[in-house]
Amino acid sequence: MEEIIDRNNALYVGIDVHRYEHTAVCADRFEEEKGSLSFANTPIGIQQFINWLSAIGEPNLTKIIGVEGSNGNGRFLTESLSQDYSQIYEINPIRTKQRRNFGTRGDKSDAVDARLIIEVLTRKLDELPRITIQDRSKTMTTLEQLVIFHEDLIFQITRLKNQLHLLFHEIEPEYQSHRGSSFSVRILDVWLKKCGKKVILSDPKHIKYFMILEKIRQLRRLKRTSKRVDGEMKLLINQIKPNLLTFPGVGIVTAGKIITAVKGIDRFRLDTFIKYAGIAPVEKQSGRNKKHKQNKCGNRQLNNAIYTVALTQLRGHSKAKAYFQKKIAEGKTKKHAIRCLMKRVACIIYGLLRSRENYRG
């Protein structure tokens, strides 16, 4: 059940976070400052802030807290605060920049930014994402870090493959025409055997062989790491939402992206979830002209994950193919039909996140 708070009789706390030190400012509903504190980004400093926060104002007043950068330098702070405070909100730096540009002074300091966060809290609270205990649980935080780490591994693997493609082509221009996959275990073993001879780096002819040898070793090491990360992610997903993996098209990495992008599904209705995913069209109205355009906002990680699921289902899921062809038959373009399929996928994912039941297609 959604907690009901009296916003007029609440205290608003804006926190501007940095690597070594945070700055907090507290104010009432009318943005009249009640106090400020700068504290170290250490366990001792954060405990000092918690003590200061609990002492300021009357004990029965709700404290509404805004943190700019809760997923970065403010991660440890929000983990500590979420244990005792329920009204914690993530503030996008774009919002504070807009408030700064809206004013006439343009000052920039930690205290000024904290006050701008308070302005966002008092005026745009309904539009802000709330941070919950689930968001900052160790399981969720670890899964989020593994998703980011996996993305970095894939970037490095792709870069190495592109570099190896170039080197393979320079040494043997016809290598792809008769060997199938360029990075299968067998093909890489052939290149290792060819390049495994003693390399004389002073000989220009051997430099490419040396580079291929080292890059293949790096590629295999990264693939082993990626496989291990996938295994660890699956264990964490099974602790949070194992039923998500029963939905066709949702793999380990995609499930991890969805869970870490959504975090607490309880803060969404179905319509707000569709908007948050950037799938619902955006209305553009001026006078008598009224149009709907593709939404390019929303959470792009969640949008990308749902798009991946939709494309995967188009390749091997009969119901998804039938739904897609139905939309094409109705006169929709392929892009529009894919967006319709994404909405259908998002609705099912929403239901799975809400329940503990497996997908029954």
UniProtKB/TrEMBL annotation:
GO biological-process terms attached to the record: DNA transposition
Sequence ranges assigned to domain Transposase IS116/IS110/IS902 C-terminal in this UniProt record: 243-325
Gene Ontology MF terms in the entry: DNA binding; transposase activity
Domain (Transposase IS110-like N-terminal): residue spans on this chain: 13-171
Domain of life of the organism encoding this protein: Bacteria
Residues passing through the membrane, by range: none
Matching NCBIfam families: transpos_IS110
Protein name, entry field: Uncharacterized protein
Lineage: Bacteria, Candidatus Roizmaniibacteriota
